[in-house]
Amino acid sequence: MTDVLTPAQRRLNMQRIRGRDTAPEMTLRRLLHAGGFRYRLHDKKLPGRPDLVFSRFGVAMFVHGCFWHGHGCPNFKLPVTRREFWEMKIAGNKARDKRTCSALLDAGWRILTVWECSLKGPGRLTAESIARQCERFISGRQQELEISGNRMASGPEKQTGARQKEPT
Ligand SMILES: [Zn+2]
């Protein structure tokens, strides 16, 4: 199949892929590790290949890019060209995330999702505050937690973390 992306789209694409293993994500991992929480990275045996797996606590953790996973936050912005292509792609990703979630929950895992906008961008939280929320979840009994940046528009989706409608 031929490459359907223009050079500009490909560049955008690569920037987004390179967003993995970013400095803020590494800081968060380091803090969790320092807090005594041991994890495996990218466990292929689990549905969705979670970014971090805390097996002792039965927790699968994902660090989701807001673009690829269609987070309804200011970090999510559809490119102006080929909107339909991107909309379909992201809808596909979201559907897959949903299936992954159900499969993990069915298998008795608890799910922690850290959205990229909590780690970087204008609404980011401190790594320490994210780490604290993660640790509380990991050692608790709650089934699911999502951590977002503090500039989420208010909407029907469940959110956690401080929220504000307008930047002050
Ligand atoms: Zn986001």
Automatic annotation (TrEMBL):
One of its GO terms (molecular function) is endonuclease activity. It comes from Dongia soli. NCBIfam families: vsr. Keywords: DNA damage, DNA repair, Endonuclease, Hydrolase, Nuclease. Pfam families: Vsr. InterPro entries: DNA_mismatch_endonuc_vsr (IPR004603), Restrct_endonuc-II-like (IPR011335). Residues 148-168 are annotated as: Disordered. This is Very short patch repair endonuclease. The lineage of its organism: Bacteria, Pseudomonadati, Pseudomonadota, Alphaproteobacteria, Rhodospirillales. Belongs to the Vsr family. It comes from the Bacteria.
